[in-house]
Design a protein that fits this description.
Beta-Lactamase, 8 strands
Amino acid sequence: MNILDLLQGKYKNLEIDEMYTFPEEMYQNSGILSLKDVSLKGDITYYDDANILLTGKVSGTMLLEDSISLEEVPYPFSFEIEENIREKIKKDENTLDILSILWENIVLEVPIRYTKVEDYQKYQGDGWSLVEEENYEGPKNNPFEDLL
């Protein structure tokens, strides 16, 4: 994104309403299977040479692996961004790599575990079953029970 006019003081505010596509290499080892419909609605405001602020709302959908079923599931995300981007501007080029700024913030939104499984009955085997936390009754035949 070229921001030369903003840096030269021709105007103080640059409005952004864009959709972004991330190359697969960016999210390859992050737990994200794909990113779709990533949009940024906001603006870049020039205050002085040390303070150039990016503010706005980022939203989109990431495709993740379900923690229980291991199926691909969509995970919608949305967050506010407010960041001083002065250090991120390439000095000789007067450009801004908006994808790297968005990526730094999107990666913080990736949940550790995510599932859409509602029926836990089909996730069981010989001597084990997956139960919801509310239905957990504690360990049965706990050999360490006498130690308590």
